[in-house]
Amino acid sequence: MNTFTSKVSINKPLNVVYDFLTDFNNHQKLMPDNIQEWTSTTDEARFSIQNMAKLALKISERIPGQLITIIPAEKPPFDLELKWSLSFDNDHTDVLFTIGAELSMMMKMLASGPLQKLADHETQSLLNLLS
C-alpha cells in the first residue's frame, strides 16, 4: 500500500474539527476545482474527477475525537482508504490526513503526484476554513 500524508495544526478545539470532518457534506469545501458532480449525505459522497473517474466514498468508522476512516462505497479503480487522525495539544488540534492506495507500478507513476497534491490541498483547505 502506498501512503500519502499531510499534517496541519488548527487553532480550534478538537470537537470543532472532528464535528466538521464527520459530516461528508463538509468535505466538498475541501476538494480541489477538478472535483465535479458532488452529491453527499452525512455518511457518503459521490463525485467525479474531471476527465478521470467517478468515485463513491463512505465513512466507515468514527472514533470520537480521534479518527475518521473513509473507504469506497463502490469498487474504485484501485483499493483506497482515507484517514483523518486528530489529537489535541494545549490550544490547537493536530490533524493528519492519510491516503492509502494500492497502486500498480504504472498507476504509482501516474497517480503519486496527484494523490499527494490532494492530501496537501485537503489539509490546507481545512486549515483555511477553520482558522
From TrEMBL:
This is SRPBCC family protein. The lineage of its organism: Bacteria, Pseudomonadati, Bacteroidota, Sphingobacteriia, Sphingobacteriales.
